[in-house]
Write a structure and sequence with these properties.
The chain has seven helices and six strands. The chain has 218 residues and is an alpha/beta fold. The protein folds into two domains: 1-131, 3-Layer(aba) Sandwich (Rossmann fold), CATH 3.40.50.150; 147-218, no CATH class. Strand 2, helix 5 and strand 3 (124-128) form a beta-alpha-beta unit. The longest helix is centred in the last third of the chain and has 19 residues, at 179-197. It is globular, with a radius of gyration of 17 Å. It starts with 11 loop residues before the first helix and ends with a strand. Bound molecules: S-adenosylmethionine (SAM). S-adenosylmethionine binds at residues 50-52, 76, 78-79, 81-82, 101-104, 107, 130-131, 133. InterPro entries: Cation-dep_OMT, SAM-dependent_MTases_sf, SAM_O-MeTrfase. Keywords: Methyltransferase, S-adenosyl-L-methionine, Transferase.
Length: 218
């Protein structure tokens, strides 16, 4: 199971206990969503690491509900775990719509089944096919250019801290040995710097798991 370790705490034992504490005292995920994450882990093994963490899913649920979100576009559905959390937030909202995209028909099939089982398939649609494989910068510029987000609309981007490599990609960080993560670092640095400088938005980087950038349109 993917976990969050806050460096503030002196060791893994304390960090794990703290994580359990704040997870248990934050808005819980409904059981069927937790079970879906368990099932993904059981069926897909290491690949299940692609899911957002449980805590991130709790946060997405809380945030979508707090924002009064009505329409959500997700790029990267995988088996539908994060989409289920978002759907939970929107299930009683009139006219709600969630579009989630993915290139993989096999995980897409798992997601579609989960949306049906959860009774949210009437407003959650999976679009199968390749989104343009590109960087967060291009997605951000496209979304802003097309005006897809209303005033106070929010874009959330995951993994913006990339195992700490965006801050320090020298030998001091053992994650530098992860060639895939390292290859993403320049794009994420560019993205984070762009957000920090862009006067059209306000950004807050929340250090939940590997960093969520929250970008609110002014
Ligand atoms: C990190 S996972 C998403 C995890 C999901 N949000 C969750 O929490 O369960 C990223 C997904 O993006 C999909 N993907 C990768 N490249 C893509 C592309 N060019 N177009 C559409 N989907 C793509 C992958 O198949 C994978 O399922």
């Amino acid at each position: 199971m993917k976990d969050e370790i806050a460096v503030l705490y002196p060791n893994e034992t304390v960090s794990t206990a703290v994580l359990k504490y704040y997870r248990e005292r934050s808005l819980p995920l409904p059981d069927h969503i937790g079970r879906h994450a368990d099932l993904t882990e059981k069926e897909l093994g290491d690949k299940s690491e692609m899911m957002v963490s449980r805590l991130q899913a709790q946060y997405l649920l809380w945030t979508a509900r707090s924002l009064g979100a009505k329409k959500i576009l997700e790029v990267g559905c995988f088996t539908g775990f994060s989409a289920l959390a978002l759907a939970e937030a929107l299930k009683d909202v009139e006219g709600a719509k969630i579009i989630t995209m993915d290139i993989n028909p096999e995980t897409g099939e798992i997601a579609r089944r989960a949306f049906k089982d959860a009774g949210v398939d009437h407003f959650v649609s999976l679009v199968l096919g390749p989104a343009e494989k590109t960087s967060y910068v291009t997605y951000f510029n496209t979304i802003m250019g097309l005006g897809l987000l209303r005033q106070d609309g929010v874009l959330i981007a995951d993994n913006v801290l990339k195992k700490g490599l965006v801050v320090d990609a020298s030998e001091v960080n053992p994650n530098v040995a992860d060639a895939y993560a390292s290859s993403k670092v320049p794009y994420l640095q560019e993205f984070n710097d762009l957000l920090a400088a862009d006067k059209r938005v306000e950004t807050f980087i929340l250090p939940v798991f590997d960093g969520l950038a929250l970008v609110r349109v002014l």
